[in-house]
């Protein structure tokens, strides 16, 4: 995903994302995400604050300090109605082991992640009740391809995990859609399948 793609999505749904016009403050946007945000941040021009990133490698919805950082930024923002995009899931359903190989995280449940995401939304609304919180879809990715990229000798052994992970992510994204439908805000979906985590 590029800066252009993000900008296009934001502009399409809400024209107050334009830069200051006539001295009016633009709407502030925040993105809470894992390492996907670090890659995206590199493509965003530093002199143009389109989105304030709160991104951390390996982040999950259970990282308390990570969530507190976002809530603190929102509490101190000047925008009356900030847009908060939460883009997690990649690191929720996989775990990293030796040699940076990943596998399915069987101790995590979809409902557990959804419950924590609802809690994050509640914390945001407690400090800025007019905030708009949107949960972005988790991209489909491949355990096999990731492990192959990391140099695993027999990455084909992860083919079954790919099938299971795709089912998990599709179910998770369906629940995110349902969660987003409870608000009247714009719907974001990046339907691109990503094969490397």
Structure report:
It is a single chain. By secondary structure, the chain is of the alpha/beta class. The chain has a single domain (3-181), classed as Rossmann fold (3-Layer(aba) Sandwich), CATH 3.40.50. It is 41% helix and 12% strand. The protein has helices at 3-13, 35-43, 64-75, 110-127, 143-149, 159-181; strands at residues 29-33, 52-55, 83-87, 94-96, 102-104, 132-135. The strands form two sheets. Strands 2-1-3-6 form a four-stranded parallel β-sheet, sandwiched between helices. The chain has a two-stranded antiparallel sheet with strand order 4-5. Strand 4 and strand 5 form a beta hairpin. Helix 3 packs parallel to helix 4 and helix 4 (110-127) runs parallel beside helix 6 (159-181). The radius of gyration is 17 Å and the shape is globular. The relative contact order is 0.14. Mean pLDDT is 83; it is low at 16-22, 184-188 and 192-197.
Instruction: Return the domain count.
Output: 1
Number of strands: 6
Instruction: Outline the low-pLDDT stretches.
Output: 16-22, 184-188, 192-197
End-to-end Cα distance: 13 Å
Question: What is the third-level CATH name, the topology?
Answer: Rossmann fold
What is the average of the pLDDT values? Answer: 83
How much beta, percentage-wise?
5-15%
Structural class: alpha/beta
């Amino acid at each position: 995903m590029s800066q252009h793609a993000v900008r296009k999505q934001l502009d399409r749904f809400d024209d107050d994302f334009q830069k200051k016009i006539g001295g009016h403050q633009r709407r502030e946007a925040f993105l809470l995400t894992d390492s996907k945000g670090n890659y995206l941040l590199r493509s965003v021009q530093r002199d143009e604050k389109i989105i304030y990133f709160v991104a951390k490698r390996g982040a999950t919805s259970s990282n308390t300090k990570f969530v507190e950082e976002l809530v603190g930024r929102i509490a101190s923002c000047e925008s009356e109605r900030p847009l908060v995009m939460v883009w997690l899931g990649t690191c929720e359903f996989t775990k990293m082991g030796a040699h940076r190989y990943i596998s399915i995280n069987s101790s995590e449940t979809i409902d557990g992640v959804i419950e924590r995401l609802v809690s994050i939304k509640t914390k945001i609304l407690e400090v800025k009740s007019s905030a708009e919180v949107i949960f972005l879809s988790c991209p489909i990715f491949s355990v096999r391809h990731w492990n192959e990229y990391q140099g695993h000798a027999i990455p084909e052994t992860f083919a079954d995990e790919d099938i299971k992970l795709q089912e998990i992510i599709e179910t998770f994204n369906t629940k995110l859609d349902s969660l987003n439908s409870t608000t009247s805000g714009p719907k974001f979906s990046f339907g691109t399948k990503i094969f490397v985590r």
